[in-house]
Amino acid sequence: MQVAIDGPASAGKSTVSKIVAERLSFIYIDTGAMYRAVTLLAIERGVALSDEESITTLAKAIIIDFRLIDGVQHIYINQIDRTDDIRTPEVAANVSAVSAIAGVREQMVALQRNLAGEHDVVMDGRDIGTTVLPNAKVKIFLTASVESRAKRRQEDFQSKGINLALAQLEQDISARDYKDSHRAISPLKKAHDAVEIDTTNMTISDVVEAIIAVVKKNQEKNS
Length: 223
Prior knowledge:
It comes from Amylolactobacillus amylotrophicus DSM 20534. It holds the Pfam family Cytidylate_kin. Keywords: ATP-binding, Cytoplasm, Kinase, Nucleotide-binding, Transferase. It catalyses: dCMP + ATP = dCDP + ADP; CMP + ATP = CDP + ADP. Its EC number is 2.7.4.25. This protein has 223 residues and is α/β, with parallel strands linked by helices. It has one domain (2-221): 3-Layer(aba) Sandwich (Rossmann fold). Helices cover 53% and strands 17% of the residues. It contains 9 helices and 8 strands. It has helices at 13-24, 31-44, 52-61, 89-99, 102-118, 128-132, 146-159, 166-182, 204-221; strands at residues 2-6, 27-30, 64-69, 72-77, 80-81, 121-125, 138-143, 195-198. A 5-stranded parallel beta sheet has the order 2-6-1-7-8, with helices on both faces. A 3-stranded antiparallel beta sheet has the order 3-4-5. Helix 2 (31-44) packs antiparallel against helix 5.
C-alpha cells in the first residue's frame, strides 16, 4: 500500500509521515531528504547550481541509505551519516533549484518508485501524489499558513543552535513556495483525489490521527 503525503515547506510532512509510518508498520521514505542530499554534495564540491549536467552526474553516482538508529531515522550519503548536515539554512535555500533539474528528478523518482514497489510505504514530498506515485491508494495534501510554518522552522533551527529572525524565515518560505509551485517539472500542487488537511491550528497528534483515519477508511473500503 502506498500513502502519498504532499505539501509546501515546513507544513509538517516529515514529522507526521514518520509517525504515521510507525503506526501502520510501513516504511517511511523522506524524498525531500534525498534532494537535500544531492544539494549538500553540490555545495560541498563547489558545483554551480546552474550546472545541471554536473549536478545530474552527482545524482547518478550518489548512494543514499535510510537507517533507523535508536528509533530515529538517519540519512547516510555515500556511507556517511549526514542527517544534520542536510538541514542547514544553506541547503534549505538551494534545494528547490536542485530538485527542479530534470536529470536529478529522474534519478530520485526511479529510486523512490523502486522502494514503493517493494514495501508498504508512507512517502512525503512535493509531487508524490501527482508524479511519483500517481496510483497511490491514499493521497494527503498538508497545508498551513506561512506564519505557522516559519515558527516551526525557527523552533527547529533553535533546537540546533541556529538563530534566524522570524521575518526572514517567512520571506524564505514564501519564496520557496513560489519556486516549488512554479517550476516547469513536477510543480507543487494538490492531486485531484487528495484529501487536504490544514495543519495551522493542529497538533502533530491531531494531524497523525486525521491521516490514520483516512488510511483506515480506505482499507475498509477495499477490504
